[in-house]
Amino acid sequence: MNARREFWSIYRQSIPVLLVALLGGLFAGLVLEGLLESIERFPGLLVMVPVFLATRGNVYGALGGRISSGLHQGLIEPRFERSERLLNAILASFVNGIGISVVIGVVTWLALAVIGWERALLVEFVLIMLIAGVLTSVVLIVGLLILLFVGFRRGFDPDNLVGPIVTTLGDIFGMAFLFFSVWLVGVLL
Known about the structure:
The chain is elongated, with a radius of gyration of 18 Å. The chain starts with a helix and ends with a helix. The protein has a single domain (3-188), classed as SLC41 divalent cation transporters, integral membrane domain (Tetracycline Repressor, domain 2). Helices cover 83% and strands 0% of the residues. Helix 2 (45-73) packs antiparallel against helix 5 and helix 3 runs antiparallel to helix 4 (122-153). The longest helix has 33 residues, at 3-35. It has helices at residues 3-35, 45-73, 84-115, 122-153, 158-188. By secondary structure, the chain is mainly alpha-helical.
């Protein structure tokens, strides 16, 4: 394949996914706007938002890269079947995603305490991040697997899909579940 044909192939595969990512980012911004009224109830909440969204991309981007490499090498079949390699990658990313969510809550609370800013209770931050982390982990894993497997079977290069898929799903569901978590913690505590 010559360079020009390869460029256009990558471009054609990436543009639709990037447009969906743009719409997903707009949706996440709208949800963030809805979170602004929660700032009074949970001071310091907005400090956690960019860190939370970034870690979704880091953890699940790595999972997507592993899956993509496995698909290219024939180590992972593009279907839902028992595969120890796939299961280990999923479990590791799930544990990392939830673990880093709890760390975000604790570190945010500590950082706000050190600089003397008003902040919600530590338990509130941790619960918000834990709930949002568990829910986004499940959706990102399932969504990533479905989209990569379907895309790969239809001839798309999974490397062109991983970044936009993880970013879009992470932003959309990260913000939606963060909003839900704030509401739930507000009701429970």
